[in-house]
Design a protein that fits this description.
Pfam family, one: Zn_dep_PLPC
Largest sheet: none
Radius of gyration: 20 Å
Oligomer: single chain
Protein name: Phospholipase C/D domain-containing protein
Helix content: 55-70%
Strand content: under 5%
Mean pLDDT: 87
Number of helices: 14
Length: about 325
């Protein structure tokens, strides 16, 4: 049966709305994928809570822990130029984390600091064992492929039924604002305005809530028993998405949006490495709380930044110097 034109209008409007939702508002995506960090955080949270005398079943502390696990990347999501995330990754990141934990005197502060530590550990393991081997070096070697690998791992995780919770996380960012700002002042001698940290968190959490649907509706991931949306994703993924991605590549711009639209799904070997990293998480973290030596170096595991003179490190220093 042929569809009348007036019956087609709602379908056309729905299609155009979805296209706008998926592709029209992707400009704010400025960071590495958060969902691997959240999955890793959930794996180690019961262990670190027990080790530090906190209740793993305390929902509020778990949400603060999530915020800490995401915080080092938050600055990437701000539209205005800043060096917040670059500083977290390039300028004495392990010392920053250690002092953050040392000065945590409440359960809330400890949860935030330990979440931050989980982020650092996953960056260390994930970059050295999965991302950098694929790229053939650090972020500076091929920044687009670096992002595509990380977004691909996120797509893999979001598609698994046991990770449904990743689609509706609600980190408690307010609890981490003061500890974060105060620690920046301790380590770098400058204190950013709390509003900047809050805006970074809110921009990040907006994308954390939106990106699963961007991946799904653009055909980068498929969910069980969701035939209609999977079908729409297939259509967009084979029409609008490749055309838009090709246009972005031709323009030689909007690298972050291009990476989101062209994620590289992990191989079986990379999935196996990921599972090993997850299982090993508590073994990597708990000894640090018992006095074992902490790691060192930048969180990107990028040899080009070992001397602290790569563009990302220089940008972080320039931003810190610009603070009052």
């Amino acid at each position: 049966m042929l569809l009348r034109s007036d019956n087609l209008k709602p379908l056309i409007f729905t299609f155009l709305f979805v296209v706008a939702l998926v592709f029209g508002f992707s400009g704010g995506v400025w960071a590495l994928g958060p969902f691997a960090h959240l999955k890793y955080a959930k794996e180690i949270w019961p262990h670190v809570a027990k080790q530090t005398g906190m209740e793993a079943g305390d929902e509020r502390l778990w949400r603060v822990f999530q915020a800490g696990a995401l915080a080092p990347d938050a600055g990437y999501y701000l539209e205005q130029k800043n060096g917040l995330a670059q500083a977290a990754h390039q300028l004495a990141p392990w010392r920053f984390c250690k002092i953050l934990f040392k000065n945590a005197h409440t359960d809330s502060d400890r949860a935030f600091a330990l979440g931050w530590l989980s982020h650092c550990l996953l960056d260390l393991q994930g970059h050295s064992r999965i991302v950098n081997p694929v790229v053939g070096g650090g972020y500076s070697k091929n920044n687009l492929l670096h992002k595509q690998v990380e977004w691909g791992l996120d797509c893999y995780l979001l598609a698994k039924p046991e990770n449904d919770w990743l689609w509706q996380v609600k980190p408690d960012h307010l609890a981490g604002l003061d500890p974060w700002a105060n620690n920046i002042q301790r380590i770098y001698g400058k204190k950013p305005p709390l509003n900047l940290l809050k805006e970074a968190f809110l921009a990040q959490f907006y994308e954390v809530g939106r990106l699963p649907y961007v991946f799904w509706l653009s055909g980068s991931l498929h969910l069980e028993n969701r035939g209609v949306v999977n079908g729409l994703g297939f259509v967009l993924g084979n029409t609008v998405r490749p055309g838009y991605a090709a246009w972005l590549e031709w323009r030689d711009g909007d690298l972050n949006v291009l990476a989101v639209l062209t994620p590289r799904l992990p191989s079986e070997e990379e999935v196996s490495d990921w599972e090993k990293i997850l299982k090993q998480g508590p073994e990597d973290l708990l000894p640090l709380l018992k006095g074992e030596p902490w790691p060192c170096g930048n969180l990107d595991m990028d040899k080009a930044c070992e001397k602290g003179d790569c563009p990302e490190a220089l940008e972080a220093r320039a931003w810190l110097e610009s603070l009052p």
